[in-house]
Design brief:
heterodimer, A: alpha/beta, Rossmann fold, 5 domains, 6-stranded parallel sheet, 5-stranded parallel sheet, B: alpha/beta, 2 domains, 4-stranded antiparallel sheet, 8 helices, 12 strands, globular
């Protein structure tokens, strides 16, 4: 609800105006009664627009055979109705999909309050219209004032006719334009007598009383007043949007208190009318106390129904918690600056002591005006969510329990009777009463009290085996026993109710807490989705699934139990819930034929997906309390899902940045490392070609040597690039085979020696080092890169040492040089791609790939590689740990067992 | 009549430099630029050696090996890229005699060509009973191995392994070929045995077992017995 006392342009007003821009405009032709000529007026207006060249079709028109109305239909496209079969009869309904597909500028939809045949997408035609408007199509429609929800009971009082087709007031108040079709009562009655007013067959009897001048005048007044209020409201809206300074009417706020005892729906309607008349905001509250949980499902439904009605009528709702109802309500009233409090007249409560809530409100309200609304029950409108059929545990079971307990008490009584005086026996019965009260509630406890009373009398008071009582002392015992029993049963059952309530509330809190914890702990979106569906399914004892939008529309992202296909009707409901951000499917007002109920998952940024639930069979539709819990869960789930999407977005962005960094590093590396050897090769080759004769043999040899060296360097670079690409693409998979470390290192050393003649390479591999299960070619590359690197950075003439040793779990191999060493902060980074310690050092033109490749290969073998300062802190030691295969020793033993010399020379 | 070498490669630059260097070394060179031409030339021209690039435009080089082997036992040296161990092993198993890793220097090419041709010459003469490699002498006929003149005692398997390597000196023999020959067809994958026995042989025959010069490893492919030039 907006706070209407702001004095700046109200953002909500602007927002509402902005939303109206993209929506279609709704124009309602409002009349006081049938026959005033609404359809005729609508068609006339349509003809005018048609002449202006507007694309206009009629979705549904009820001419009821009136000739002048039919004449107005000329030139207007009437979309064929959709034939629906229901209980063997054909019904003609407006074809909503045809309209949406046709996309005219204006659609004519007669009878806005019409109720659709079951099986249609929406229960009511106004919901169809909402969808059309949502698609940006303008709608012309007609409405009689009597169908307005808030006037429903007044109309019934005035006319004695029960109006079953009702329309939420918000639909009318959200209409962009209202045209009042007014006809004085006398003329209407005249038209009725001329047969120009359509009256359905079954209503003929009521016609006389409905179309009485008194009724019509009252209805006309309602229609006129409504139209006038609209004009007022538009004026205020205009002032707000344009920030015209006041005086705006300071709006009152009416607080309506409902509970399961009062006639909540009626209270809500009364409050709505009062609020409308005063231009007041209104809020309907109900207080949940610790004993609220003991309400019957019917009671809970009634309250939930009233709250839903409130929302339909455009009011605000609040659910308050507190054990002192009066204090809670008054606190809230103060908090919200309510000016009036409306309460219902509570039904008399004979059993309770003390004042009723209403009486206390009167006493404690202070400066609030308190209004009490009385009145008879009226029929409730068709509920939006059908009340669930509750299977309460059968009462007779509890009563049987009561009787059994009494029987046991009698038995215990006889046992006691053998040793103790009679008077103590009543204690056994009191115990039985308490047990029953705690376990089964008040009624069985009372039954226990009464049966105990008689049993005690019959079995244990003199004279025994009769109901007669002779001793006055016994009479007193019996009477006090009965009183005590009733009090005890009352107290115990109340205690039980409190315990149940506390348990229920604890269960709900735990449930929400658990859920919160689970979804927060889940890291990936899949985990979150799984947590959501699992939790929801276990909470409602049914099935649950989450649908997320993808390229091809909504698709199932998770289900518990897993589900991969939705039937068409359910899929349509899911799509609708997604597109409109509202409840759809089984048990809701939209597409109730679906097997699932779909709740939109919405966050502040918009919809993220749809949650589908399906109850197990015995509980077809979620109860209101389950529904409330589900909605809370859906909100939490939406936030959690959005969080993972955001995380994924951030991760994508991070990866993109990293990729960009690598790309530019690769480019600079390519341009440098590819070009440098090429320059040398081309220079040397062209020198040879051009100045061959002028050169001596030594110079020629030097140049050809340059060509060869540089070509080899280029080859190594290309090889590194290839390896790196394969590693990155996951294509460089080790083909592990048994290999001798000596072989591998030996080959690498041999290759290095050709390049680094100025360094001494020493290899020291402990004989205890077993065969390794590695890819020999890749490992050779690792050692070649390491040795190459060492020779590149360590000054000429120094020694590079390779040594290897076996430790219990690993084979440790170190390559140690006597170079300048690596700064500690770079010891991790050197294994990154394109990282070089001396970025500007032209002398050691490395690719920045060698160590990255080493790490990739070693890690693919399940090993680790790290850089540490060398011996005595000088130079660098690259340390490799390779895991040892468990079967190594067994293998070695087997082979050496076979390898005994067998002669044979 | 000079030795004739058939070069099958689709790269004109590579054919050119091989032709120049091989001709300079006194060989006669026949060129083929694809598999079809190559197989045709191998059949009609009866070359003494085939140098085959595995990456050909019209047919996989491996198929060329098989096609040639159907009719002749002319020595085949394949050109393969580094890290293409599986290709090398397959080519050797299909009957190729040796391989060279691209890119290669001309010295390496000539060494391989000479080694393969020498082997063929030996075969032509009948089995050379004594193989000399450095200080080691292997008398295949009398089953005696000496190192620096002193006899070395070998186990039966060690002898089998060494004899098989010595039967084709300077040739790479794949793990599978060796295992099948020495251990029998059922042991085609037991490379660990092979490593252990190679190690034992090296301990007995090499001057420095950790830097072998006699029995050398071709990583990922197999072993060869090096006689030295």
């Amino acid at each position: 609800m907006t706070d209407d006392r702001e004095e700046r342009p109200s953002p909500d007003a602007l927002l509402a105006a902005a939303q109206r821009e993209s929506r279609g405009r709704l124009k309602i032709f409002l009349g006081a009664a049938p026959g005033v000529g609404k359809t005729y007026a609508m068609l006339q207006a349509a003809q005018e627009r048609k002449r202006d060249g507007v694309d206009l079709v009629a979705g549904v028109i009820e001419t009821h055979g009136r000739r002048e109305t039919e004449a107005q239909l000329v030139n207007i496209d009437l979309l064929p109705p959709r034939l629906m079969e229901y209980r063997g009869k054909d019904f003609r309904e407006m074809d909503l999909d045809a309209i949406l597909a046709r996309r005219p500028q204006i659609v004519l939809v007669d009878e806005l309050a019409h109720t659709n045949v079951p099986g249609s997408r929406h229960l009511k035609r106004w919901q169809d219209v909402e969808e059309i408007l949502g698609a940006g199509i303008d709608v012309y429609s007609t409405l009689n004032i009597q169908h307005l929800e808030s006037l429903n009971d007044i109309v019934e009082q005035i006319s004695g006719v029960k109006v079953r087709e009702t329309l939420p007031d918000s639909v009318l108040s959200s209409a962009d334009e209202i045209e009042l079709i007014d006809l004085p009562p006398q003329e209407l009655i005249k038209r009725l007598h001329e047969g120009k007013v359509y009256v359905p067959e079954q209503a003929k009897r009521a016609v006389g009383s409905f179309f009485s001048p008194g009724n019509l005048t009252a209805l006309r007044e309602m229609a006129l007043r409504h139209a006038a209020e609209r004009v007022d409201a538009q004026m205020v809206d205009y002032m707000r949007e344009h920030a015209i300074p006041g005086p705006w009417p300071t709006r009152e706020r009416i607080l309506v208190c409902i509970d399961e005892r009062v006639d909540a729906a009626k209270l809500v309607r009364v409050a709505k009318r009062a609020a409308d008349r005063r231009g007041a905001a209104w809020v309907v509250v109900t207080v949940e106390t610790s004993s609220s949980h003991t309400q019957t499902e019917a009671d809970k439904d009634r309250v939930a129904e009233a709250l839903r009605l409130t929302q339909q009528l455009g009011g605000e709702t609040a659910l308050l918690q507190g054990d002192d109802v009066v204090a809670t309500v008054l606190n809230y009233a103060r908090e919200r600056n309510a000016t009036q409090i409306v309460v219902g007249r509570a039904r008399s409560r004979r059993w309770r002591m003390g004042k009723s809530v209403t009486e206390r409100l009167f006493a404690e309200s202070g400066d609030f005006n308190v209004f009490v609304v009385g009145g008879e029950d009226d029929d409730k409108p068709a509920p939006l969510v059908r009340p669930r059929k509750v299977k309460a545990p059968p009462d007779w079971l509890n009563l049987a329990f009561a009787l059994v307990c009494t029987g046991i008490a009698i038995g215990v009584g006889f046992l006691i009777d053998m040793w103790l005086p009679v008077a103590s026996i009543s204690v056994a019965f009191l115990l039985a009463v308490m047990v029953v009260a705690m376990r089964a509630g008040l009624r069985p406890a009372i039954l226990t009290s009464v049966t105990s009373f008689f049993a005690f009398n019959f079995f244990f008071t003199e004279p025994r085996w009769t109901f007669a009582v002779t001793d006055t002392q016994n009479v007193l015992t019996l009477v006090f026993f009965l009183i005590a029993a009733v009090i005890v049963s009352n107290m115990a059952s109340r205690l039980r109710a409190q315990i149940l309530a506390t348990r229920e509330s604890a269960r709900r809190t735990t449930n929400l807490y658990d859920f919160g914890r689970k979804v927060t702990a889940a890291a990936t979106q899949d985990d979150v989705l799984w947590a959501v569906v699992h939790h929801v399914a276990t909470t409602i004892h049914g099935k649950s699934l989450v649908l997320l939008p993808g390229d091809a529309g909504l698709s199932i992202a998770a289900g518990y139990p897993p589900e991969d296909q939705l039937d068409d009707r359910s899929a349509a409901a899911a799509d609708w819930a997604w597109a409109h951000g509202k409840l759809a499917g089984r048990g809701s007002a939209t597409l109730p034929a679906s097997l699932w109920l779909f709740l939109p998952l919405k966050t502040g940024r918009g919809p993220v997906g749809v949650l589908g639930v399906q109850m197990s069979e015995d509980a077809d539709i979620p109860s209101p309390s389950q529904m409330r819990l589900l909605e809370t869960l859906a909100d939490q789930a939406a936030v959690a899902i959005e969080r993972t999407t955001l995380v994924a977005d951030i991760e994508t962005a991070r990866v993109a940045t990293e990729r960009e960094r690598l790309r530019s590093a690769l480019l600079s590396s390519l341009s440098h490392d590819l070009r440098t050897p090429l320059v040398s090769i081309m220079g040397a080759a062209s020198s040879l070609q051009n100045y061959d004769e002028m050169m001596d043999h030594a110079s020629r040899h030097e140049l050809t040597q340059t060509i060869q060296d540089e070509a080899e360097r280029l080859n190594r670079f290309v090889q590194n690039l290839l390896d790196m690409t394969k590693l990155g693409a996951g294509a460089l998979k080790p083909r592990a085979d048994w290999a001798d470390l000596n072989d591998i290192v030996g080959a690498a050393v041999a290759r290095t020696r050709r390049l680094a003649r100025a360094h001494t390479i020493k290899v020291d591999i402990d004989p205890g080092v077993p065969l390794l299960c590695v890819d020999p070619v890749l490992m050779e590359q690792v050692f070649f890169n390491l040795l190459d690197n060492a020779c590149k950075y360590a000054p000429p003439g120094t020694t590079v040492k390779v040594w290897a040793q076996r430790t219990p779990d690993y084979v440790t191999i170190e390559v140690v040089d006597q170079g300048p060493g690596i700064p500690p902060e770079a010891s991790e980074k050197i294994f990154d791609m394109f990282y070089r310690v001396d970025q500007g050092d032209a002398k050691s033109a490395g690719t920045g790939l060698g160590l990255a490749i080493c790490r990739g290969i070693i890690e693919a073998h399940g090993g680790t590689i790290k850089a540490e300062p060398g011996l005595h802190g000088a130079g660098t030691a690259i340390i490799i740990h390779l895991p040892q295969r468990d079967d190594m020793d067994g293998l070695a033993a087997r082979i050496s067992a076979e390898a005994e010399p067998e002669g044979g020379k | 009549m000079s030795t004739r070498i058939l070069v099958i490669d689709d790269e004109p630059q590579i054919r050119k430099f091989m032709r120049i260097s091989l001709t300079a070394n006194g060989y006669e060179v026949i060129e083929a630029e694809n598999a079809a031409q190559g197989i045709e030339a191998a059949n009609s021209q009866q070359p003494d050696l085939l140098i085959l690039d595995l990456g050909l435009p019209d047919l996989d080089g491996q198929e060329v090996i098989s096609a040639v082997r159907e009719r002749s036992d002319v020595p085949i040296v394949v050109l393969s890229v580094r890290a293409g161990e599986l290709d090398k092993v397959e080519a050797l198993d299909r009957g190729a005699n040796d391989y060279i890793v691209k890119p290669f220097g001309v010295a390496e090419l000539m060494a391989r060509v000479r080694a393969v041709l020498r082997q063929r010459a030996i075969k032509g003469k009948g089995n050379d009973d004594v193989v000399e490699a450095g200080t080691v002498q292997i008398d295949l006929g009398r089953r005696i191995v000496t190192r620096d003149g002193a006899e070395v005692h070998l186990s039966k398997r060690e002898w089998g392994l060494l004899a098989f390597l010595a039967s084709q000196p300077d040739h790479v023999l794949t793990h599978k070929q060796i295992l099948k020959e020495v251990w029998g067809p059922a042991h085609g994958e037991d490379t660990a045995y092979l490593r252990v026995y190679v190690n034992q042989l090296r301990q007995k025959l090499e001057a420095d077992p950790s830097a072998p010069t006699l029995i050398v490893t071709d990583a990922g492919v197999g072993y060869r017995l090096k006689r030295g030039e």
